[in-house]
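Duplicate of #3305? Posting structure anyway:
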């Protein structure tokens, strides 16, 4: 019975891996074209892709920009948020209950030592606010954080609540940029690009405060 419980998550993860390979060189414009072809099923297709593709490390920024292109700011933000929360749940549960040892080795290999140290301490209230901060920083690998927090003692409910709080600002910024991307000469596009630049700058400073001894190769300085 335990094996059967994980047939669906495992199938979703394998589907995501296959789709990620298929779409590995895909741009937001190409995703927009494919999703448009689905007609009234485009929102469901987009949410499904957002649920499974990041599990295989497909870049979420590409998906978010495609969502803004296709659905606009309001509905693009709603569909992206739904897809992101489903994806967070999937990756967290896969990490916690399916292939935990392999995921632990992968996270240890890919995350810089200073991040791993912080994540090992991610419990209770401190871990909750740490996750919000990590979600706000685009430079922190979204996919790895999903898997990494599945290895902690944090429960699913607080994990999803903290993820939701941290995901919303970046979602709005990226969807807004995608929404304006069809008219790159317009003032609205440059305003959206400026908001993205401001987010990156602000979260870079936040990252420096969160990881004050972090170097680019992932090692701690004295």
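Output from current build:
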């Amino acid at each position: 019975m335990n094996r059967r419980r994980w047939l669906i998550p495992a199938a979703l993860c394998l589907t995501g891996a296959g789709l990620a390979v298929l779409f590995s060189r895909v741009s937001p414009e190409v995703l927009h074209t494919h999703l448009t072809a689905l007609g009234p099923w485009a929102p469901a297709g987009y949410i499904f892709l957002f649920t499974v593709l990041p599990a295989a490390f497909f870049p979420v920024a590409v998906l978010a920009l495609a969502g803004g292109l296709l659905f606009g700011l309001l509905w693009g933000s709603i569909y992206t948020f739904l897809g992101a929360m489903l994806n967070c749940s999937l990756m967290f549960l896969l990490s916690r209950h399916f292939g935990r040892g392999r995921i632990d080795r992968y996270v240890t290999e890919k995350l810089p030592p200073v991040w791993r140290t912080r994540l090992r301490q991610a419990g209770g209230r401190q871990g909750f606010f740490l996750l919000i901060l990590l979600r706000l920083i685009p430079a922190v690998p979204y996919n790895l954080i999903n898997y990494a927090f599945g290895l902690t003692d944090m429960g699913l409910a607080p994990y999803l609540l903290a993820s939701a709080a941290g995901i919303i600002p970046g979602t709005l910024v990226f969807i807004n940029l995608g929404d304006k991307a069809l008219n790159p000469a317009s003032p609205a596009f440059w305003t959206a690009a400026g908001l993205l630049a401001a987010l990156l700058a602000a979260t870079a400073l936040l990252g420096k405060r969160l990881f004050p001894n972090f170097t680019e190769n992932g090692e701690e300085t004295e």
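Confirmed duplicate; merging threads. The mean pLDDT is 75. DSSP finds eleven helices and no strands in the chain.
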